[in-house]
Amino acid sequence: MIKKLLVCLLLLHISHFTWGQKLNNQEIKELINSYKKDIRGPYKEIRWFCTDGSIRLPKDPCPDKIGPGVQHATYKNSITDLGKNNHLFFGQILAYTDKEEFWDKESNHSRLKQYQLDKYLRSVDDGWVLQKGQYYRGAIQSEDEEAWGIDFYKWLLSDTDNLKKHFFLIRQSLKDIPHEGDDNLAQKIRSESKVISDMAPSFMDLRIKIHSQPDAEDINRVTHYKNNHSGKLSSEVNSKIDALTRTMTTFYKSVDIAALPKRTNLVLEKQIGKDIIMYADLYSEEKNNAFLIPATAELLLSIRKAILEEESAAARLQLMDASLKLEEIIFKKTPEWRPKDVNELLDKVCYLGMANVGAGYIELQEWQQLNLASKGNSLGELTKTWEHARREVEWSSSMVKANYQNIVDIYTGFEPKAYGYIDDKIRGSIALHLGQSVSELGDIIAKESALTNKVMGIDNQSGFRGLNSGYALGELVVVSGSPDEIEVVSDKIYVFQRPPADLKPVAGIATVSEGNMVSHVQLLARNLGIPNAALADDNLRNLLQYNGEVVFFAVSNKGNVIMKLENDMTPEERNLFAKKERREDRVRVPIDNIRLQENKILDLKEVDASDSGKLCGPKAANLGQLKKMFPNKVVEGLVIPFGIFRSHMDQSMPDSKVTYWEFLNTIFKEAETMRTQGINQSEVENYQLQRLEMLREAIKNIPLQAEFLDQLEKGFANILGENLGEIPVFLRSDTNMEDLKDFTGAGLNLTIFNVVTKEKIIAGIKDVWASPYTERSFKWRQKFLLNPENVFPSILVIPSVDVDYSGVLITKGISSGRPEDLTIAFSRGAGGAVDGQSAETYELFDAGGKQLLAPARETYYNRLPTVGGTEKKIATFENFILNDQNVQDIRDLANAIRETMPKETSTDYKGAYDVELGFQNNKLWLFQIRPFVENKKAQSSDYLEAITPNIDLNKKINLSQKI
């Protein structure tokens, strides 16, 4: 009684101080804990809900004259408030929910996804918010939930556009939303095994087996475990093992293939119905999985296509359910298909890939870009098939993450167990088995080519692939959760799920989600010789055991990866770190020709490449050059040169006897004095960062000179054609430290998106001037520049172009290494591809044709409204971003740049270019061009060359060889 009273008081307390307000994560945690202890969980009371809108007490059912009505619980006030204020929905009762509100289109289907995540949390946390409330009799009526589910899907599936855009999400939701009486038993097996391993650590090896390589033999393994350990286990654990055994026995019962035509009776007269009948006739008794799985995969893909052609929502629902049964067959039977030779393994990879697209894990158009049916017998052809299959595995994982990561991140803030949901989804997919088969094929190729990864002796080493060559020695930090709150240290090696957007200097990096090959993070790593690799989800989990160890990490020029403990390093590897980094390896920012006396705003048309580092940074100088070369592809613009910044820095700081410039130089002089006194480098750096923060805040409040403001007003009117405050613009930081011969500086300083008002533009100018003194920018400069204090920001001011999609062109094949090829990466909206988004990436071959390296998987993108700021839009993935004409326009642009840029700039530069561009209504706009800087030292390192094998791609492979 006392406990109940305390729970009630807690709920009253929480509702009192958060009434009508958005709760923080700690307050939500307290609510969840209170629901767990409450015998009614998140529910208040049970009522009858009648068809005439009336609500009656449990013992007063709806009269026959107004219809039967439904009975279920109502929500506590705190649950209702949580939905209104936080858009969070715990313990959802479907019969209580409006269909459109549940579909929740405006919030990217958040409510539906929360329903799925809620079910997962209940399975891994003993009911979660319903820990006691799951026994609250009458709260939820299963028959009413199923009836609602059928009604919901008939409503949802009547919209063909919904199906095209959200096929994966809709199909996944069918596993969780009751509509036919089925349970998601595969997920139940994983969650029950997790609960057991949490209670009995000796079960962990079995749990890993069940999660990673599930098959029917797991039933015997669990039984054997219980027989061997029952005396050491509590009665509760023994009971849970019995429950797991029952669930597995039910799951591994053979799917009744013969019953499929009855379950799809609404389409039997159509071609897909005839295909289902033929499949049932031919394969209902099939025991050879080498025949059963290919036939099932072909039908699964046919059903996906037929669902889109079908018009009846009820028929679509039947086909969707049949599709889930076929996926279940493949998931259960694949472990029993053990190929005898390479030829059969290629078949297995191909058909699992086909089944995977049929189940919606990649889009139909993406499948058309993959060639898994090749049976070429050269090492090169075999490698290409493996690369395509590996891409499909990566794209499948990214599909799951794109759909669910956002809601998982929100829930993880107050419920850490939510983070396991993505992993659970991937492990319950055909992509799990596809990945295992691809790994087997990769091992064969590695053996034949000698391109072998050597990473700590962990499993599935073919999941690693190098992105940027280099080597490093440092502490390994494995981050399985979100990287955004991690404070990185420059001498450590990091393994992330995804790269953080604002990565500070690190010794080495490996990521599951690499973002894209031409993001600022990737370009910096490539430029500076930081070893950088991609890896699979299970590789990250396997590396967790080495978190905190000092390791050697190397990526060769061909992309093979080495990681070993410091104690296992060879003498040659130790010698790489025998000498400290020499100061002359750093780069000096040239300032001899800088023209700081120029303090007038310039028209973009007045500058060209020869002004880079003198009047302004390379962004403005090169864009001015492009304006001359491609006048119709470059907007008008203003350039605020270095001299205007410098003249403002000569003003006295408030409440100080020194100028801003004198204050800045004193920081670096004092730091040098501290070093000569033997003070620890970290202490010196902390001093500099503290003083730079003071300077940065002072610059943000620096008074602007009247003459400059007058020039700004006139520049907007005369050059941009609109008054200051009436046209949205971008303010791009453009320093003299960018695009040096050996240092790119990509993405280190500030770009302000789409500002309109005079106040925001003026504040933005100050913010851009202050941005070189941020911690991230300073640390990169300090590590790689000899004179980091001599950094001058200019500002490029250009009108906003509300592009439909934007991205990056590199006039070189990064993947192939061929200088005649092109690499492009595009995302929807503005600012695409440069900030690490999962972008649509291609290699364009000089001989014609292209290869999709990765599809776009960014759920949100930016549009630029005329009122300023950014507007978030929701993306779907059924269509590619770029069309054929866009690609041809990019090819033509690249050819023109290669031909005319050296002539126009009178330079002997023969390297590749990094170009930022976008399309608005299919018109190409250019925003930036810079040299594509690679780290020649890493590329030419004797050690890296030594670990890079010479591969004979023409070597013939006997596809009949036994495996």
UniProtKB/TrEMBL annotation:
<comment type="similarity">
    <text>Belongs to the PEP-utilizing enzyme family.</text>
</comment>
<feature type="signal peptide">
    <location>
        <begin position="1"/>
        <end position="20"/>
    </location>
</feature>
<keyword id="KW-0460">Magnesium</keyword>
<dbReference type="InterPro" id="IPR002192">
    <property type="entry name" value="PPDK_AMP/ATP-bd"/>
</dbReference>
<keyword id="KW-0067">ATP-binding</keyword>
<dbReference type="InterPro" id="IPR006319">
    <property type="entry name" value="PEP_synth"/>
</dbReference>
<keyword id="KW-0418">Kinase</keyword>
<keyword id="KW-0732">Signal</keyword>
<dbReference type="GO" id="GO:0005524">
    <property type="term" value="F:ATP binding"/>
</dbReference>
<dbReference type="Pfam" id="PF01326">
    <property type="entry name" value="PPDK_N"/>
</dbReference>
<dbReference type="InterPro" id="IPR013815">
    <property type="entry name" value="ATP_grasp_subdomain_1"/>
</dbReference>
<keyword id="KW-0808">Transferase</keyword>
<keyword id="KW-0547">Nucleotide-binding</keyword>
<comment type="pathway">
    <text>Carbohydrate biosynthesis; gluconeogenesis.</text>
</comment>
<protein>
    <recommendedName>
        <fullName>Phosphoenolpyruvate synthase</fullName>
        <ecNumber>2.7.9.2</ecNumber>
    </recommendedName>
</protein>
<comment type="function">
    <text>Catalyzes the phosphorylation of pyruvate to phosphoenolpyruvate.</text>
</comment>
<feature type="domain" description="Pyruvate phosphate dikinase AMP/ATP-binding">
    <location>
        <begin position="615"/>
        <end position="943"/>
    </location>
</feature>
<dbReference type="GO" id="GO:0046872">
    <property type="term" value="F:metal ion binding"/>
</dbReference>
<keyword id="KW-0479">Metal-binding</keyword>
<dbReference type="GO" id="GO:0008986">
    <property type="term" value="F:pyruvate, water dikinase activity"/>
</dbReference>
